[in-house]
Amino acid sequence: MDQYKKYLRDKTILITGGTGSFGNAVVDKLLQCNPKKIIIFSRDEKKQFDMGNKYNSDKLKFIIGDVRDKDSVSHAVSEVNYIFHAAALKQVPNCEFFPVEAIKTNTLGVHNIIDAAIENAVERVVVLSTDKAVYPINVMGMTKALMEKIMIAAAREKRGTTILCGTRYGNVMYTRGSVIPYFIDLMKLGKPLKITNRKMTRFMMSLSQSIDLVLYALTNGNNGEIYVRKAPAASIGDLAEAMINIFKYKQGTEEVGIRPGEKMHETLISSEESYRVEDCGDYYKINPEVPDMDYRAYFFKGKKENSLPHVGYNSSNTKQLSVKEVESLLLILNEVREEIKSMNIK
After folding, report:
1. Pairing state of beta strands 12-16 and 82-85?
2. Any bridge partners for residue 164, and if so which?
3. Phi and psi at residue 183, in whole multiples of 5°?
């Protein structure tokens, strides 16, 4: 965090959807940087109450509001320096059943955040996207893809002084509703681990790495850019096997098949985007198609090749983790170590 402290010291930071897994984890990091204030903006008063008790810090301020409501967003954004826009409907099945609700939150919500940020001269906004936004086949991915396009279009207009950029990442391990805590819950119930397809692959990233990505984008991003962290992947079968090994579980697995809206492999950078990607070491930067309001460039300018594969960057062509490597990765997580301890596994 040392490299980010000078950017965050004495700044006011707004986190939309701030009571979620990302919000709780990033607050831990931000408090180390002596910010002026951290504003948690979300709808759930119980989670805000619990979070306030957890941190007990006078630097934290809680605002009840909804990104769908521009008035409540405008109130929250006043005198803010930086915004992390994490509020979203993220559960694929819920978005499939209630697509209009996903549009209101994931798509129209970012429009409200960006407009309020520009009107209030916020310095920087980072919107958090997902690998599901690339070649989207479900409502969640489609609304997140539109979120990215809204950010890029607003950045291109250059209204005001606000810098708008984004991040994209895959599965974050042990976040709320993700597969690892789900597997642990099944173990506690003595049930087989339910897997969709053993050969399905997913990127593997820790919550700490996702925070590093967002802070890197905040401090390095320019208008319309999207940042991706390089990450290994594992098959669902190998992940389940690693969980069974470290928990010494005897009930095995049960294959249930691919559910509606799921892919065999996820993509962080499309083949079309690969021509405008820059390698930034631990990260890839995706430059916008056209950085300015020059519509002619859409028709007459193309992009040259670079070192990325023509198919883009996905969970089948990144580094594939072995079962042993997945085990090592899981054992880094404090939550997994605590679960092993609580279950008296030797």
Report:
1. parallel
2. 125
3. -60, -40
Q: What are the backbone angles phi and psi of residue 286, rounded to the nearest 5°?
A: -100, 110
Question: What is the structure's pLDDT at 228?
Answer: 97
Q: Do residues 112 and 69 make contact, with C-beta atoms less than 8 angstroms apart?
A: yes
> What is the token pair recorded at 178?
């993700």
Three-state SS at 9: coil
Spatial distance between the Cα atoms of 81 and 125, rounded to a whole number of angstroms: 9
Q: Which amino acid is at 244?
A: I
Give, for 30, the enclosing helix (H) or strand (E).
helix 21-30
Give the CA distances from residue 71 to residues 50, 65, 210, 239, 292, in Å, rounded to whole numbers and listed in that order.
Answer: 26, 9, 30, 44, 30
List of domains in the chain: 2-171+205-231+268-314 (3.40.50.720)
Task: Tell me how far CA of residue 194 lies from CA of 121, 251, 265, in angstroms.
Answer: 48, 11, 18
**Confidence check: pLDDT of 83 > 90:** yes
What does the alpha-carbon distance between residue 248 and residue 154 come to, in Å, rounded to a whole number?
Answer: 51
Buried-state track 269-307, b at ≥16 Cβ within 10 A, e below 16:
bbbebbbbbeeeeebbbbbbbebeeeeeeeeeeeeeeee
For residue range 280-316, list pLDDT tens digits in order. 999 999 999 876 656 555 555 555 555 566 678 999 9
Give the residue among 219, 109, 224 at the shortest CA–CA distance from 165. Answer: 224
Distance in angstroms (rounded) separating the CA atoms of residues 165 and 151: 7
Q: What's the pLDDT band for 224 if we cut at 50, 70, 90?
A: very high
Q: Flag the least confident range among 183-192, 200-209, 302-311.
A: 302-311
Reference 51, options 20, 88, 7, 96; nearest CA is 20
Query: Per residue in 157-172, pLDDT tens?
Result: 999 999 999 999 888 8
Coil/strand/helix, residue 176: coil
132 is catalytic: yes
The residue with tokens 């003595």 is 190
pTM of the full predicted structure? Answer: 0.90
Q: Which of 90, 132, 144, 285 is catalytic?
A: 132
